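[Automated response] Your request has been received and processed.

Submitted sequence:
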Amino acid sequence: MEKQITCFIEAGNSNNIRQTVKDLQTTDCVADIFIVGPEAPEDLTLNEIAGWIQQPSMQTTGAIKAMAERCKTPYALIYTKNLPLQTGSFALHRMLQVADDTSAGILYADHYRIKNGVTMPHPVIDYQEGSLRDDFDFGSLLLINTKAMQSAAEAMTNTYQFAALYDLRLRISQHHALVRLPEFLYTEMETDVRLSGEKMFDYVDPKNRAVQIEMEDACTEHLKVIGGWLAPLFKDVDFDSESFHNEASVIIPVRNRIKTIEDAIKSVLNQKTDFHFNLIVVDNHSTDGTTELLSSYAKKDERLIHVIPDRHDLGIGGCWNAGVFHPLCGKFAIQLDSDDLYINDLVVDTIVKSFYEQKCAMVVGSYQMVNFKLEEIPPGIIDHREWTPDNGRNNALRINGLGAPRAFYTPILRKIKVPNTSYGEDYALGLRISRDYQIGRLYEPLYLCRRWDENSDASLDIGNLNGHNLYKDRIRTIELKARIAKNNQTR
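Generated structure:
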């Protein structure tokens, strides 16, 4: 068979390199194998590896350009881990076949992962136009059309130390399809054994800030190329468009949170303001005593509005709509989850003042991660300082969330409405509102966010994790198309 693939492997332990090289050399479609790293291990001889590309890592622009130059075959195979790779029977042949049949710019596949000594299936999800997040899970094995890679590498103008692979796939996606093959074609080692609820905050970790700056730059450039970037021009917000008896309402959707809802209620009713506010708790047919507790509080304090929807098909977003459209909802609707509580008695006042000071349609705060006992846990304060007034709404298409607590100018929220889901509805709102309006930010922690076993995203299996990611990617796709259309209308 004609040798159609040049392989590029991330450097690492010599024994791991040997095992991966040996696995790849058994396939008759592989021409050359190159290792990419800062320096070749002394115990590796040149006859054990086809070549060495001296670069800090595959994530650098220099590495991408060097790989594009060295590749003389129709396809490049990039393996991004430095642990032993085991390809399946005729796996590379199958990838070549499908890449040819689909004219894919990048082909990736489902695979197996060995985690804590156990081999488990690891399906991935289909790439779509809005799959702009830099942590999209392709797996560690990418088959890339060489001409597409060379064209993308030639167009690279920025020099990245961390974002070059991300830059590469964005550029390739501008002209070629990124195709998922739903077949388990190889086995990789899983080195990050943290729970999903821990991994999800990596992008706001201060030690990763340099990485995030590069990722934002790459995404911003991509959005400008495809017409999805929005200039920092925003609609004005008229805070006198409607009259409200209450200046603010805190809205808590709840179902079966008898362990935590009382703390949440007290943290709201203890707020100090010089304006009228209330608390609307939308009780989604609880069965654990939550309903009775809420009824007793509502009898003692008229500020607590206990709502039990007539419908039984509401997610968190649908419960939010029930609260927002309640006749006693205030001018500003402020979020609090039933697991959490405000950090002090000035939160509602601080948020409302921020609307007027920042002239925005939505305010996003910061929070502190705690355990069930309210003791701080890593990563501590989540403040989303990657947000900037000029480019925040563009960068929002790359990251996985905008932060919390969230608050909204009620007339605008009533116009847009909340998606009736129980995951990602807040992210969808942030994207939609930021398309037209400025989002205000508060960087001091406003509430304590409990992480415990009953949190919805504390520890997700791969099926649920993929479902969440697929939904957020779809939301990004919808928003991206709308922003492109918005730009086209203004030309």
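Summary generated for your ticket: The CA atoms of residues 1 and 9 lie 23 Å apart. Residues 199-203 have pLDDT under 50 and may be disordered.
If you did not submit this request, please reply to this message.
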